[in-house]
């Protein structure tokens, strides 16, 4: 038979240290929002403010609206641009938005794969639009394609790994029922 909790005066200092859903839930949510904001700051820095961007002189000839034409052409001249520059552009664009679906799903509670993918695509298009309008970086449709691949991988990772982990943490730490 369950006994009622002791009156406030009878509680010990150990009772005040117990982890309860009421105490941990706001901290976890705040930590997730902080992680999303830090991630957004890193993306803004890498895409718009990084040192390599400052040496770039923008001109309309840099804009690429034909899918994969520059990527294929650059591969043909890989010795001229360097292996590192070529592959870091491709894999960097894929990796750039991979964490976004997990962070958005964890902070907002949004679970729809379509919406998570759509948000990632919108962020990618927004980045390229800002690059075009403000003449920062090189607006390239290939970046949208590779960013979208990263978002798709992020959604798959969310489904396979993080969603299960998120459920377990919500159940064990926060006392919520598993969804």
Automatic annotation (TrEMBL):
Residues that span the membrane, as ranges: 30-48, 115-133, 145-162
The VanZ-like domain sits at 37-160
Task: Please provide the record's keywords in A-Z order.
Answer: Membrane, Transmembrane, Transmembrane helix
Q: Identify the domain of life.
A: Bacteria
- PANTHER family per the UniProt record, alphabetical: INTEGRAL MEMBRANE PROTEIN (PTHR36834:SF1), MEMBRANE PROTEIN-RELATED (PTHR36834)
Q: What is this protein called?
A: Glycopeptide antibiotics resistance protein
**Species this protein is from:** Hymenobacter caeli
